[in-house]
Design goal:
By secondary structure, the protein is an alpha/beta fold. It is built from eight helices and eight strands. The strands form two sheets. Strands 2-3-1-4-8 form a five-stranded parallel beta sheet, sandwiched between helices. It has a three-stranded antiparallel beta sheet with strand order 6-5-7, with no helix packed on it. Helix 1 crosses helix 8 and helix 6 (117-125) packs across helix 7. It is globular and about 45 Å long. The structure holds adenosine monophosphate.
């Protein structure tokens, strides 16, 4: 299964990606996680990305595209992959299309998690993230439910940055939805209900692929 997961920040992409990747036994490739790991390790890539991330802006395509193309040459993607947070604009979508066409490994589907803005702001501004594994946690959690690590609020989950991220999504990422719809790859499901219900809905919808 070669899958792209799209949806606004706060739609639950990271959480669903973990479950879907486990279900299909494919690697979960999150560009946000890769950037955050580089930030934490204080690499040149992390230092380059930091200002854009803290401001809720996209990291430049030149940096992001090379990072993803490199990741997609690792052996573990031979049986598929789940891309979470990439592509995020039409240039990235075109780069991905050309890269996969050259390797003759077309996408199976693009799964869109849809959710309205009021719910996004509520979810994100109270979300806590694990310092160690990056998993999101509920606002009342004391430590990470996945690995027991300490929790913090992401710089870009602060309310003023969330508004900017939503604008960036509308302006730059939403157009790729029409692109994938026209390619016949788009599957949209509402990101409402429990985590397990959304995962089940996604697996059912993906199971209808011929
Ligand atoms: P995420 O964890 O997917 O919400 O990503 C966090 C931040 O990382 C974004 O707000 C961007 O600054 C950066 N980022 C993640 N994916 C991309 C991408 N495909 N293109 C550019 N910037 C990205």
């Amino acid at each position: 299964m070669r899958l792209v997961l799209v949806g606004p920040p706060g739609a639950g992409k990271g959480t669903q990606a973990q479950f879907l990747a486990a279900h299909y036994s494919i690697p979960h490739i999150s560009t946000g996680d890769i950037f955050r790991a580089n930030l934490k390790a204080d690499t040149p890539l992390g230092r380059e990305a930091k200002g854009f991330m803290d401001a809720g802006q996209l990291v430049p395509d030149s940096v992001t595209n090379e990072m993803v193309k490199d990741r997609l040459t690792h052996d573990d993607v031979a049986n598929g992959f789940l891309l979470d947070g990439f592509p995020r604009n039409t240039v990235q979508a075109e780069v991905l299309r050309a890269f996969l066409a050259e390797k003759q490994i077309p996408l199976d589907a693009v799964l869109e998690l849809s959710i309205d803005n009021a719910l996004i702001i509520k979810r994100l501004s109270s979300r806590l993230t694990c310092k160690d594994c990056g998993a999101p946690s509920a606002p009342d959690a004391e430590k990470c439910s996945s690995c027991g690590g300490a929790l913090y609020q992401r710089e870009d989950d602060k309310e003023e940055v969330i508004a900017r991220r939503l604008e960036v999504y509308e302006e730059q990422t939403a157009p790729i939805i029409s692109f994938y719809r026209s390619e016949g790859l788009l599957i949209t499901i509402p990101a409402v209900g429990s985590v397990a219900e959304i995962t089940e809905h996604a697996i059912t919808a993906l199971g209808r692929l011929s």
